């Protein structure tokens, strides 16, 4: 800034101040000082150097302050009594900001800006020139005050730099390392003056006011400062999270400074944007703001104190507060460490239990998953409530109406039916039955699982022997065989209602084997004599079950709707069907169908011993009842129960078919087939051509049900009457005031799981099914299942929701593809699938390098083809009529279906692999797998055997697909601008995924070495264990090998140099293993290169230790010295030569799986650390 006229400058300033506050001057000893309110307010907002400044010190750009000569107003001269304002004798001298500034000015002047040694006497003389009254100050005290000013930051760094600049100009020196900012288009700050008026009116020494310098940028904030600021922010964020905002320390006010503004800008633009997207509630936002402000204050040199109003007597000593803070911080750290460990252990335990339960019983796991997702509420019913309710059903015996005429008619029709052949139970039959059971299905009261009976084959002969005895002499059956454990599963979210539970009974394993042998023989008798009606598909083997009934029903509804034909239907559902059928009728129906009388006698005796214990097991607790006698109904969970129940309802089909009533399925214009009903277990649907016929069919069903003492569940019984395309309202009176109501125009009925009105509601069903599928998929991904089990669960728990509709609901390829896209995005959301990874791998089998997810489009085509072939090859009149009538009424379009062969799974998989291989980037890995020296099956074994976390599995596949966001990928694949393709560690060009996994020289001595040692440790421990050099088995990641292990037969070195008489450049293999008796030594060396370097690494290992092998053979007098390379690719690819190496060392052939898992885990960890993921 140019020189200015001092006199005119000062006079103008004084006149301005007088005009603002003409009466504000106060006369004091030594001169009067202007103290206007405006000036004081501005001073309060300025730098923390204080309200008083040294003569001519530039405290900020464009601001000049002058201080009168003489001592500060609040410090008495040395020759006067030194007392405090309270009148007490002052013990210590008070140093004002003016005095501190002058101390530093004197120090910089006498040391020539710290370039010459300090002369204490000169420092004291210069100080006393300005403050002559303080003769009691010594040289040492002045030096100590200088040190205190700097260490305690009484004067900010900004003001010290300004002071240095001023002293340098006074000394005519050029001060180094000062950065000047050229400021353009910016208005200069208003000049602020604090002058002594009396001196201002007199002639002034023009040398007392130096030339105004240009603005100086004194705050240079580096990347280190930014990292420090972010670290401080993270620390405070952790400290104040979950703390009540009103309990946090109050943030002090801050004076404006450039450093404060710069730190605030950095926090706002560079740091906070990283954290704000992750906040979840308003309290989090508040905490982030508070922590950011506190971090800026601390980084700027400020302090945050928790000020509380306390009486002096309660004030703690500083040392006490320091110790308490230290103890509190230590306890907080320990608490956080312990809490983190507890959380980690809890997750690990939860993961282990969930996977164990999934592997043991998937059905039980899915049941718990469903219960947890629905979150049942309310208290459980009491033991008395469940006993009373279920006893009223099971323990009240009833008999069927023996005088019914239709029973006699059925018996007359079956008079010539041959009697069932006597059953012969052999050990082969027992073995055949037990072979089809699940190993670890829930055991009954006896506690024996199917696995034990299946594996203990020696018992089969004895089991068959006793079963035969039971048939001949039922009284020999022990009572415990008829005991069951009935688990009540909730059917709704309200748990307190005992009627809203489904009973599933776990029976003794041997009881179920016995009834399974009997059911097999009875079914053969029923099938040979064609006793079951074709309308019943509840227990028919090789049928399509519900799907078959839904397809037939769809053809009927579509034909009626398209041709505007009248159709009258009724949906019948029994109340507690399995639990209410009388025992007398169950025995009578066996007699009607001429089952072997010995079997009937044995079953009658067993029924007399039936009893069960009820149990509810929920998160709210466990309720267990006393044993309840079962004198009505049959167990749900027994092999014989479905067939027995279908036989109990089978006479109804015969009676309904005799009427000749029903809906006419027309085909070929003149031909038709009459259908009166469809049955699936207890779900019955009646069809009629007019209302009168339907009323008659309902009367027959009502009479039959009443005779066998079974009642309708009126809340699930409905009528659907369609006349000329319109739904008409009508009802059916059952008597006693019970009426079956009809559906209205916009109502639907859920028949066999699918909603229908005039026809199936395809759009609504697809939307609901898709929603349920995504919900189940999300619940699975939220669980702790490993990668393999997760995709198994998706295939068996989520996808069946959609596949159940294949053949009945019309799905387009686009709709199925959209579901698969939604599946992939959901997997990506839970970090299970990289969005850029090869989509073909998701649906490939795991032994082919995929993840085993079912391809919905292929499954749809496969099921459509299977259903078409099933209907085309059925010989019954109903099926033939449906085939001819299905003119695009269903997705099968049976009228135009042809008998062609669908491509097999093998062909489909081959096409998928070819599609994967053709991709430029993704196809590199399958190309590597197809090399002749690679064992493809072994290379993919980790996908099915390693049991990796879901996220780790997906991350490793993305590494193999080379879609990790390395700088090379970002620059050349993603085409991101301003990306330098240079390794962030070694700074070499080309940061590819291959470079990160096995090519970075900086990672070689650390991360690569750790991965290498993990593999070597597995080999070392296995050799030590097999050779009895070590007995304890430790997880390989905790195993610490000893340098030398030796006994009378073997010697094993770990990473030990071998001394030779000739200089050998490579004399330190990873392991040296010697079999003393055979004078045989193995030099074992591990290598983990990239896949394309497998062969070269193998050859390098052999040539590298050839010289050492010759020396060892000569010096150690060995018969043979073999070099054994252990080579695995960094991505887990297994060369065929690895099997030969393991075989040569007599190690287990499947040990490569453990080696592969160790490599895969370490590679994933290396990439994560390298990319800070």
From TrEMBL:
Reverse transcriptase domain span: 470-756
Annotated region described as Disordered, given as residue ranges: 66-91
Record-linked InterPro entries: DNA/RNA_pol_sf, RT_dom
PROSITE patterns: RT_POL (PS50878)
BP terms from Gene Ontology: DNA biosynthetic process
PANTHER family registered for this protein in UniProt: REVERSE TRANSCRIPTASE DOMAIN-CONTAINING PROTEIN
Protein name: Uncharacterized protein LOC115881201
